[in-house]
Amino acid sequence: MKKKENSKEYTNGEITVVWKPSKCIHAGVCVKTLPQVYDPKGKPWIKPEMATTEQLKSQITNCPSAALSFYVNGKS
Prior knowledge:
Blueprint lengths: L7 E4 L3 E5 L9 H5 L19 H8 L7 E5 L4
Antiparallel strand pairs: 1-2, 2-3
């Protein structure tokens, strides 16, 4: 039986950021691009309300490990 992958979700109301820790290679692209959103020492460490939806989408598509993804709220 395949183990369900652990993920965490954070929303800004428009989109939801999905983080899969097991995929994360800690390249730091997220922290360098949007330090106001991604704070590895913060609780929670992702605060999507601190950037626009477009900024988040742009940054997430540059995640080298695909540990970060997103979906638009209210759409499937």
